[in-house]
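Record 1 of the preview.
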Amino acid sequence: MARIGLVVHAGREAAGLLAKEVSAWLAERGHTAEVVDTDPGGRFDLVVSLGGDGTMLRAVDMVCGRDIPVLGVNVGHLGYLTAVEPTELHRSLERFLDGDYQVEPRMTLDVRVDADGSGPLGRSALNDVVLQRTSAGHTMRTEVAVNGTPFLTFASDSLILATPTGSTAYNLSARGPIVSPRARVQVLTPVAPHMLFDRSLVLDAGEAVTIVPVGEQPVDAVVDGSFVATLQPGQAVHCSAGAHDALLVTFGERDFHRILKSKFNLADR
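->
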């Protein structure tokens, strides 16, 4: 008997209906399904994300480091991270239960935020860490150090540190490079930089990156699209390659270039 966790997009009726339907389908076959909203606790054989990329990021964050694979079902719009469509869910679960699947590891970031309060806040990121200005009209200034050595002070609207998976998210809209998910690198991209150096910087996964706001303005720290803390000048964000990969369920090898062309409607000339 398998125990399946369901992470459901609360704002999409279709996702809720699909969760009820698949729960009944699994119960008929002797398995259990449970909708989870926070840390699921206990042991799941699989977590299924029913929603878009945001739901997928939430599901991965819940189980990262616990060796629980995640299957993404696209009940959304773009669904770049998801593996199957709702019409394919039953067959995909049958294949998973039969052992006919693969797990694709994706690099994550370990993020430690030095904010006011009881101590540093620790998070895991599959897509990115973003420092952004708290209000319009002010340029954000951030000092970046690599492996403890000062690199550069950026003047920009925000600053993105992305994983290869996250290279097709906010990093892409800021004209950062698209990186194969098999690579193990970090991509540092300034958004609307007010400086001559306006390029992305690609760093090795093993390099430690520290970002500190300077000047007079606070900045917001956002991890995988979720607000984490407001940082005052001098408070730091420390990032490095995650100790644990995200484990994404696939059926057959995912062709990164084909998926990229399909999701972004890229046509051959």
